[in-house]
Amino acid sequence: MGHSIIDLIGNTPLVESRVLNQNPNVRLFFKMEGHNPGGSVKDRAALNMIQSGLERGDIDKTSKLIEATSGNTGIALAMIAGIYGLDIELVMPENSTKERVQTMRAYGAKVTLTPADIGIEGARDYAEEKVANHGYIMLNQFGNDDNWKAHYKGTGPEIWRDTEGKVTHFVSSMGTTGTIMGTSTFLKEKNPNIQIVGVQPEDDAKIPGIRKWPEEYLPRIFDRSKVDQIIEVTEEAAIEMAKRLAKEEGVFSGMSSGGATAAALELAKTLDKGVIVSIICDRGDRYLSSDLFE
């Protein structure tokens, strides 16, 4: 009795691939982050950034919070800010799916849409201006250590526990890079031989939630030495795999999860044996107004 919605964040299930993984000597597990109450892996970072900020006194009930987001982080922040009675403004490109905008507003956040042609970088610039000149506070998922520490405290230990320490490879799409940084830090402490594989789009591919950042926008929390290998995926492969995940494995997720799965399957083909854990970062119903599942 007496659980709050916050207590449901984390401890997401691991589900084994029954169809897509064709290598009998490799086990591939999906870490089902869509099972978080806000529907994505970002619940973890949002909770840790807000809770830790409140504990340190960096923010309080009078703070005006602002964050640029392409979607899932915004939803998670809206949910958790609402629970804590905090004011938050979320800034994102106007071509974000309408489910995302509506969900953030449902949780009580103010949503500001910036022009699509300046992308998430433009949304970040808008938020920075508000911080510089209008007394706003940015949680800054791209530079906030509480982002990756959420995964050091949660995602990493859960994977270690649920694979009974047998995990050999961890695969994650890279956006803010919080998931891969925190999980890598924890798993490498347990066993330095675990291979950490980052997934990013090929140069011209557009995959929501994952980026190949230009140098000046590279997340401050990113440390290249914590990633053993980077696999690049095409937009087509990510879309195709998101569809196959839903149809063949019953795993309904977005494009970045499709990209990560495509990379995990490429990896699986090259291994003699192993236990791969790949992040499924959100749920597919976030994308129904887009053409992903047309």
TrEMBL record:
<dbReference type="Pfam" id="PF00291">
    <property type="entry name" value="PALP"/>
</dbReference>
<protein>
    <recommendedName>
        <fullName>Cysteine synthase</fullName>
        <ecNumber>2.5.1.47</ecNumber>
    </recommendedName>
</protein>
<keyword id="KW-0808">Transferase</keyword>
<keyword id="KW-0663">Pyridoxal phosphate</keyword>
<dbReference type="InterPro" id="IPR005858">
    <property type="entry name" value="CysM"/>
</dbReference>
<feature type="domain" description="Tryptophan synthase beta chain-like PALP">
    <location>
        <begin position="7"/>
        <end position="282"/>
    </location>
</feature>
<comment type="pathway">
    <text>Amino-acid biosynthesis; L-cysteine biosynthesis; L-cysteine from L-serine: step 2/2.</text>
</comment>
<dbReference type="InterPro" id="IPR036052">
    <property type="entry name" value="TrpB-like_PALP_sf"/>
</dbReference>
<dbReference type="GO" id="GO:0004124">
    <property type="term" value="F:cysteine synthase activity"/>
</dbReference>
<keyword id="KW-0198">Cysteine biosynthesis</keyword>
<dbReference type="InterPro" id="IPR001216">
    <property type="entry name" value="P-phosphate_BS"/>
</dbReference>
<comment type="similarity">
    <text>Belongs to the cysteine synthase/cystathionine beta-synthase family.</text>
</comment>
<keyword id="KW-0028">Amino-acid biosynthesis</keyword>
<dbReference type="InterPro" id="IPR005856">
    <property type="entry name" value="Cys_synth"/>
</dbReference>
<dbReference type="InterPro" id="IPR001926">
    <property type="entry name" value="TrpB-like_PALP"/>
</dbReference>
<dbReference type="InterPro" id="IPR050214">
    <property type="entry name" value="Cys_Synth/Cystath_Beta-Synth"/>
</dbReference>
